[in-house]
Amino acid sequence: MSTSPEYATFHFHALHHADQPLLLPNAWDVPSALALAGAGYAAIGTTSLGIAAAQGCPDGHGRPEVRDATLALARRLAGRLPCPYTVDIEGGFGGDIGQVRDLVAELADAGAAGLNLEDGLPGGQGLQDPVRQAELISAVKERAPSLFLNARVDTHWLEDAPPPLSVTLSRAETYLAAGADGIFVPGVTADEDVSVLAAEIPAPLNILFAPGRHTVSRLAELGVRRVSTGSLLFRTALEATLTAADAIRTAQRPADAAGGEVMGYEEVQRLVGEE
Question: 153-185: per-residue pLDDT in tens?
């Protein structure tokens, strides 16, 4: 496919209306994004946890250094992927509406096809007022109308006791009216809840994949249009790192401990090498 920003954005929108849900693996740096794109995935997302952790920061706290690292990664990916990519910007990294608009404009200039914008407050301190969040969504869409804005509703992510689905649906309705292109509800795992959200939300529904609870085929049957891996791949990579290190310590082959082959030095060099 063409790698022009205009076509990438158009294609990314279309992927949410295809016959099968968009399975979106989330990368945390250039090599992970290039490897996933090279494996044939139709689009790549970034994971805010992976990027924040790489800076030695917690996720979801709106740290300026995480904002800078997120934007830097988006710029490094520009023109290097054969598929669209979308960027997780938490809740805007604590910026006011003007600052978030500027960030989104920079992401669009870098070639991003979409973004995630969550309504959870920094540090897990509850949820943003939906009216204020709608104002932010509207301002962002006005500044970068072509980007696919995935509005994340954190009713089931930050709350120990999630409110009724009617609260989630009310927020989704408000955000769509403000211009959001899709709705992301992480933390929902029960089939019946996913089914209600998919039926009641008149836009592509994004669900966070839960190992042991979800399969892509079942989520497709329930009406989900996008399935994200979130930080799962990053956390799996960390676990694989520990497994390999322990294998060396106990005189095993790292590949045997990991259950497969290890990517070679030259292969990594080719992966990240400039065209």
Answer: 999 997 678 999 999 999 999 999 999 999 999
Burial readout 214-244 (b: 16 or more C-beta within 10 A, e: otherwise): beeeebeebbbbbbbbbbbbbeeeeebeeeb
DSSP 144: S
Q: 64-77 vs 97-110: helix axis angle to the nearest 10?
A: 20
Query: Which CATH code is given to the segment(s) 5-272?
Result: 3.20.20.60
Long-range contacts of 48-56 (CB under 8 A, 24+ apart): 48/88, 48/89, 48/90, 48/116, 48/231, 49/230, 49/231, 49/234, 49/235, 50/26, 50/231, 50/233, 50/234, 51/88, 53/28, 53/234, 54/28, 54/29
**What is the C-alpha separation between 178 and 133, in angstroms, rounded?**
9
End-to-end CA distance of the chain: 17
The predicted pLDDT at position 6 comes to 87
Q: By the 8 A CB rule, do 131 and 105 touch?
A: no
pLDDT of residue 273: 86
Distance of alpha carbon 192 from alpha carbon 167, whole angstroms? 16
Global pTM reads 0.93
Those residues whose C-beta lies under 8 Å from the C-beta of residue 145, and which sit 6 or more positions away, are none
CB 128 within 8 A of CB 91: yes
Does the CA dihedral 15-20-26-30 come out positive or negative?
Answer: negative
Contact 114, 87 (CB under 8 A): yes
pLDDT digits (tens, 9 = 90+) for 215-274: 999 999 999 999 999 999 999 999 999 988 988 898 877 666 666 677 888 888 988 885
DSSP H helix total and E strand total for the chain: 12, 9
DSSP 3-state assignment of 53?
Answer: helix
Q: Which two structure tokens, joined as six digits, stand for 153?
A: 């509703």
- Position 177, amino acid: A
